[in-house]
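Late entry, evening session. Most of the bench is empty. Finally got around to the prediction I had been postponing all week. Sequence below, unchanged from the version circulated by S.P.
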Amino acid sequence: MPTTLTAFADVTTSDSALRRFLHGLPGVDAVGLEARAASLGTRSIKTTAKAYAIDLAISMIDLTTLEGADTPGKVRALSAKAVNPDPTDRTTPTTAAVCVYPDMVATAKAALNGADVKVASVATAFPAGRAALPVKLADTRDAVAAGADEIDMVIDRGAFLAGRYLDTYELIKAVKEACVRPDGTEARLKVIFETGELSTYDNIRRASWIGMLAGADFIKTSTGKVGVNATPANTLLMLEAVRDFKEQTGIQIGVKPAGGIRTTKDAIKFLVLVNETAGEDWLSNHWFRFGASSLLNDLLMQRQKLSTGRYSGPDYVTVD
């Protein structure tokens, strides 16, 4: 199997070539997509498998705070929770990452103090992405210089919806280059499409291919700042895209649904989607993440119930 983008080299040579490729992708059967997502969401999970799924979901969370009122104290508290989600049970996995604004990266990095939890930073004028390219690149470089392990960028949805596909591709490529440190190491790049603003499943498929061709390490549904965020259907579509991309190139790309995933039941539905669509290779936090803030608490309560037989309630977990 090839591990190269050589087969797609001509696709990104011009805006017209990229447009022909993207509009030549198979159209999405919206009814079929939503029916399959709904069907997979009805799968029953037995007790042992549920315990495994809960721990896996915890380990996949990018524990997130992206508010104007964020303070260093809040970020330190969130970092402590990421490292030790349940102080009453030290067997609880750590989360995958803490996700913050660029100016809070250094605070999170210091608070984590070498723990096996990544620092992810949003960038590129998150969440709207309405800024000039030099500003977006400076935003990215500042976060990387402060110690960010991962960058969650937003595409220019206006450019994409106006059909300026090559501009969208070039933006992602430029941000990918800005993720490289002087020593040659680099932050992994997650590309946020804001699927709720892309209007159609065909657009989500096209955006997914642009992101993958441009070098994204992850493709991500949403910022969590609009009315429609991650759904089983749009996540299923993106999982199909990364599966097909790997089959054609040998290159594996991660997926991150974000926004609106709040319960253990929801998280398990998404894990079933991953397993049944992309396969076991994606069932790790290196290739699949949940962008969430409140999801962790529900997972912890369900985990406690499985171990003690009692449902402890929200007062027994820390407030984010």
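Two things to note before I forget:
The chain has twelve helices and eight strands.
The beta strands are 61-64, 97-100, 118-123, 150-154, 188-192, 218-220, 254-256, 290-292.
Will write this up properly tomorrow.
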